[in-house]
Amino acid sequence: MENTASDLATVPIQWWGIVLVGLAMIASIILGLRALPGIILRALLSVLPSQAATILEKTVSPFKGLIRIVFLFALVDLILILWGPDFLSSWGERLVSLNLTVATSVLASRIFQQFFDVYLIDAAFQSGRKVNSELLIVSKWAVNAAIIILAILIFAQTHQVNVIGLLASLGVGGLAIAFAAQNTLSQFLGGIVLYIDRPFVVDDYIGLPDGTFGRVESIGLRSTKIRTSGKGTLMIVPNNSLTQVNIENFTGAKKVMSLLYLTFYQLIEEQEQALIREVILASTQDIFGINPRSTNVTFRTLNTGGSEAKTQAQITLFILGSGKASMDIRRQMLDRARQNITVKLKEYGVQFDIEEPNIYVDSPITI
């Protein structure tokens, strides 16, 4: 009886001991995951060349928290794989693996975004060739799409999901529907194209090749409603026809005026002003999206009340774009052009102060 009582008394102690060991292991794993990305990053920085180490540090360091999440999902996924092929671990592994795929895709996309903003724009500008900002935007979206597609394919391949067979079976069933409702399906697909491409949005003023001009009142899945200017009538246009014609968007065309001020330490003579104007125009004329015909450089004399008079240059640039992404990238390239102007003028021995930041003023397109 005494032995039985002592054995029963030790059972709770053993159970709590297992719980404490488990909690200690979990705490160790969490602490290890917090420290592991930093350890790996420092190890890579120590072995890579200086330039590659700088690029890695600037692009990867801001996302240590997301890297820890990826490591956590990877560790849990590995544990479930080693656990065994039973029902619970199998479906649990698929769920964790799906989260791992999503987290890894987000991490890769954000690292590329950081690399794109910090290095690619600057490298494109330093190449000495004309910089096409629209091509940069397309490249950015293409890489993000490639990351998503690659993640889907890797997940499908590692979990025996026959993506090609699934798409083929869906295609056979959808073929009959496509023949039965060809016209309606064409209009529906045209609506999807308009939503993705977004050549115009509601309240934009657009013009069509047949002379139609008016304000977009709504964009449906099958048709778009345009309130014509002058008559005020409502025109309903099938979406598939809008995807096959040239559309002139008067509202969507954005025009932003950028003002940059250079204050020189002394009065600048006319010959030097001509040199400065030439350097400024040469530094901005090769940027797509900058209207070179509207670029203007004016000089004026500043009298600061008793001190020596100075010359100030006002640089007026017009940035053209069709969306927020293109405008943001062109502003970044304009900042790079401003740095180029500063370097070239200092090579000629011209000393000046430049106001920070640039002044941007919206200049709407005249309808």
Q: Would you kindly provide a written description of the structure presented here, covering whatever features stand out?
A:
The protein has 3 domains: 14-163, no CATH class; 181-249, Roll (SH3 type barrels); 254-362, ACT domain (Alpha-Beta Plaits). Residues 5-11 have low confidence and may be disordered. Helix 4 (87-126) runs antiparallel to helix 5 (133-158) and helix 5 packs across helix 10. A hairpin with a 5-residue loop joins strand 3 and strand 4. The protein is built from 10 helices and 10 strands. The protein is an alpha+beta fold and 367 residues long. The chain has a 5-stranded antiparallel sheet. Strands 6, 7, 8, 9 and 10 form a 5-stranded antiparallel sheet that branches.
Question: Which properties best describe this structure?
Answer:
Alpha-Beta Plaits, 5-stranded antiparallel beta sheet, transmembrane helix, 10 strands, membrane, single chain, flat, 367 residues, alpha+beta, 16% strand, 3 domains, SH3 type barrels
Quick recap:
The chain is α+β, with helices and mostly antiparallel strands and 367 residues long. It contains ten helices and ten strands. The strands form two sheets. The chain has a five-stranded antiparallel sheet. Strands 6, 7, 8, 9 and 10 form a five-stranded antiparallel sheet that branches.
